[in-house]
Design goal:
Layout (H helix, E strand, L loop, with lengths): L4 E4 L3 H14 L8 E4 L5 H6 L7 E4 L4 H4 L2 E3 L4 E4 L4 H6 L1 H6 L1 H8 L4 H6 L2 H5 L52 H7 L3 E6 L2 E6 L22 E7 L6 E6 L10 E10 L2 E10 L6 E2 L1 H7 L6 H11 L11 H19 L5
Parallel strand pairs: 1-3, 2-3
Antiparallel strand pairs: 4-5, 5-8, 6-7, 6-8, 9-10, 10-11, 11-12
Helix pairs in contact: 6-9, 10-11, 11-12
The protein binds flavin-adenine dinucleotide and iron/sulfur cluster.
Length: 340
């Protein structure tokens, strides 16, 4: 690992000041010149692999007092960005009113990682593309813009079929982000200029011509919280992977349904493991509205969810797998027992 400057922030204002100061000291600014450190379970791995080479790390863990809340007010949920995955997954009100969140966190990584890792770090984790994580491959547009993409003609079994470009086909690896997408969450961002909120769906950027730019966050900006309006007790996360624990998704679906008298009033579906960013499938959702959800409708919605999929040499199986995951998730959500 390369040498770096380590700073510890004492409060949110000090954190964004330190990040901004470190960013300008590292001018011309590169995305990775200064990085906030949360649980460190992704960042330190990538630094040891020499994939990320920040000159400065700003430890934001001292902000946990303000930024690790799990606040359910009876109607809405606010989650601090420094809340640990395991705490949120085990929280009784999250499990009761937002099972899709609890499932997405419980099915991710390992217990040790979940005890350390934070929600903010989770949504901002970087791809597991093996060519990205191995610096002996020179062709990776995400690491070195303009260098090419080793995965395009390489072994691309785990790569994306949705949201890809001719520059990058890396899969977005996280699980929790899909739950946030399905619940129409809002993300709160703290910057030197103040605090702003925006739809979580606008946080990540598909690779397009610039796969090295993964989010709309400016250097020095911090994710501070997530909010979800309403309760979504009829929701779940279904994850298919090569083994039943400690493995990333090959295909997953976060589903949230509002069903009244057997009719779907509102249905949301977000996909994981198959796309370059957390992926909402509104073209499938419109098919559910005001319908009774049966096996045939679930299958049609699953087909629609993958209508834009572009397979590569080794990953075409993800389309059929993904459709089965979506169809099963919808049927399970429609029939799940709801606790009052
Ligand atoms: C073996 C292994 C298996 C895994 N399996 C899964 C899995 O199945 N599903 C899954 O979802 N994840 C999985 N993960 C990923 C794991 O969940 C992430 O490493 C973890 O959630 C990252 O959180 P962290 O707090 O440790 O982030 P860090 O490593 O501290 O940070 C990650 C990135 O986010 C930035 N950052 C962190 N917090 C903030 C913030 N508040 N504002 C702005 N930037 C911030 C950091 O600068 C860094 O760039 C796995 C990881 C490992 C090592
Ligand atoms: S898929 Fe993206 S991350 Fe992977 S090698 Fe290609 S450019 Fe790099």
């Amino acid at each position: 690992m390369r040498a770096f400057i380590f700073q510890r922030a004492t409060d949110p204002s000090a954190a964004v000041q330190a990040l901004a100061a470190a960013a300008s000291a590292n001018s011309p600014l590169t995305e990775a010149a200064v990085q906030p450190l949360a649980g460190g379970t992704t960042l330190l791995d990538l630094m040891k692999l020499d994939v990320m080479r920040p000159a400065t790390l700003v430890d934001i863990n001292p902000l946990a007092g303000n930024w690790s809340t799990i606040d359910f007010d009876g109607g809405n949920l606010k989650l601090g960005a420094l809340a640990r995955m395991s705490d949120v997954a085990a929280h009784p009100q999250v499990r009761q009113h937002y099972p899709v969140i609890a499932d997405s966190l419980r099915l991710a990584a390992s217990p040790q990682l979940r005890n350390m890792a934070t929600l903010g770090g989770n949504v901002l984790q970087r791809t597991r593309c093996s060519y990205f994580r191995d610096v002996s491959y020179s062709a990776c547009n995400k690491r070195h813009p303009g260098s090419g993409c080793a995965a395009m003609e390489g072994f691309n079994r785990t790569h994306a079929v949705l949201g890809t470009s001719d520059q990058c086909i890396a899969t977005y690896p996280g699980d929790f982000a899909q739950a946030l997408m399905a619940l129409d969450a809002t993300v709160e961002i703290t910057a030197k200029s103040g605090v702003r909120t925006m739809p979580f769906a606008e946080l990540h950027k598909a690779p397009g011509r610039s796969p090295e730019i993964e989010t709309v966050l400016a250097p020095g900006e911090l994710v501070s919280a997530f909010t979800i309006a309403g309760r979504w007790p009829r929701s779940l996360y279904l994850k298919a992977r090569d083994r039943q624990s400690y493995e990333f998704a090959l295909a997953s679906a976060a589903v949230a349904l509002d069903v009244q008298d057997g009719v779907v009033r509102d249905g949301r579906i977000a996909l994981g493991g198959v796309a370059t960013v957390p992926w909402r499938v509104r073209e499938a959702e419109v098919m559910l509205k005001d319908q009774r959800l049966d096996e045939a409708l679930a299958a049609r919605a699953a087909d629609a969810a993958f209508s834009a999929a572009v397979p590569r040499r080794n990953n075409a199986f993800k389309i059929d797998l993904g459709k089965r995951v979506v169809a099963r998730a919808l049927q399970q959500a429609a029939t799940m027992e709801i606790r009052a």
